[in-house]
Predict the structure of Cell shape-determining protein MreB.
Amino acid sequence: MFGQAELGIDLGTANLLVYSKDKGIIVNEPSVVAIDQQTRKVLAVGSDAKEMIGKTPGRIVATRPMKDGVIADFDITSEMLKGLMRKAGKELGLNLRKPTVVVCVPSGATSVEKRAIEDAIKSSGAKEVHLIEEPVAAAIGADLPVEEPIANLIVDIGGGTTEVAIISYGGIVTCNSIRLAGDKLDEDIVLYIKKTYNLLIGERTAENIKMEIGYALIEHEEQKMAVRGRDLLTGLPKTIEVSSYEIQKAIKEALLTILETIRTTLETCPPELSGDIVDRGVVLSGGGALIKGMQEWISREIIIPVHLAPNPLESVAIGTGRSLHVLKALQKAKS
Ligand code: ADP
Ligand code: MG
């Protein structure tokens, strides 16, 4: 219909992206909402709200309403979606009345969790909502030929969940989803610094450490970084220096869990498809794929080539948006 917008939404634990067929990514913001606890009023959403995490005065809290890839707080998620859909409308230069939306859901989500995601999108003004499984969206966004009878293995490491799936003929052949991803690495860094240095650091600081000097389990030249926090003994601010070797040790356990999930998926791969995967390799997407040395490390461990998706942070959103035409074709075929 004329003027009817069609959007793909990646409602991630860490980042929310909106993709339009004509304009590409039109919204890319952290999944964060700042609220006044007394009045329950939403003060900011997205990057404005993320800036406030851990820095706000008592009654204002910056929260992340998505946890482990699903909705933890329905009302706040709806508010966040409303705010960001307004932004999407502005970007498109037309008012976003009743868009058709495709939204991705983690393959491990329960039907109740899927329903909540659908309802939240509807409450933000969508006319029609279609769901697509996240690994399929990630694979489409990473330009993998998902509609062909060729198996592709995709690993999406997000903030809250890691999804490992084998996709063939447009569907998931086998899949493992764990509720451990980038956020867990941040938590482990906070814990390590606290135990080793009696220093309390915030989650944003931990995330910065991970991005700057966090390495997968590969050999590398040592890097150091100054880290600020609160000394738990004196209660005073303090700066220490941490090494990339220490951080590697701190995140090792979580990285091994991710690797184990990839191994398990490969083990359950139907033999007819194993050959494809050995030939074509594994594709990494999601922000966690950007950890230094990830590609090299996984490839060495599973002895299969590993490729990085062209835009790891955007693959799911792009794939979600592009999947619209596939859905339409399916609907036409049905009616
Ligand atoms: P989600 O789909 O759950 O919203 P994303 O795919 O957007 O998650 O990835 C977010 C995660 O990726 C966060 O844990 C973030 O810290 C991590 N991340 C983003 N960029 C990098 C980077 N350059 N190095 C390491 N981790 C990163
Ligand atoms: Mg994601």
Q: What stands out?
A: The pocket of magnesium ion (ligand 2) is lined by residues 10, 12, 156, 158, 286, 316 (CB under 6 Å). The mean pLDDT is 92. The CA atoms of residues 254 and 264 lie 15 Å apart.
